[in-house]
Amino acid sequence: MNNEVLVALLALVGTLSGTFGGILTSSKLTAYRIEQLERKVDIHNSFAERIPIIEEKLKEFNKRLDNIEIGK
Question: What is d(CA 72, CA 65) in angstroms, rounded to the nearest whole number?
């Protein structure tokens, strides 16, 4: 085999391994960032579920305060 062909094949193997390594690293980073965003969304959703409950309690407290003020 000619030296040029051997060098070309080695360059091809190096290029392919570098490309696939970069793709795998990028994929892992993307998966990690998506996981972090999912955690933030879960935290936000728990707040979104609790806000209507808090609003109902506030309405109840406001009614009680109005009743106390009227009683005075």
Answer: 11
Burial 44-59 (b: 16+ CB within 10 A, else e): eeeeeeeeeeeeeeee
Residues 6+ apart with CB under 8 A from 58: none
For 2, which DSSP code?
A: -
Q: pLDDT digits over 17-54, tens only?
A: 999 999 999 999 999 999 999 999 988 888 878 888 89
Position 72: which residue type?
K
Q: Which long-range contacts (CB under 8 A, 24 or more apart) does 23-30 make?
A: none
Q: Report how far residue 21's alpha carbon sits from residue 42's, in angstroms, rounded to the nearest whole number.
A: 32
Q: Is the pTM of this model over 0.90?
A: no
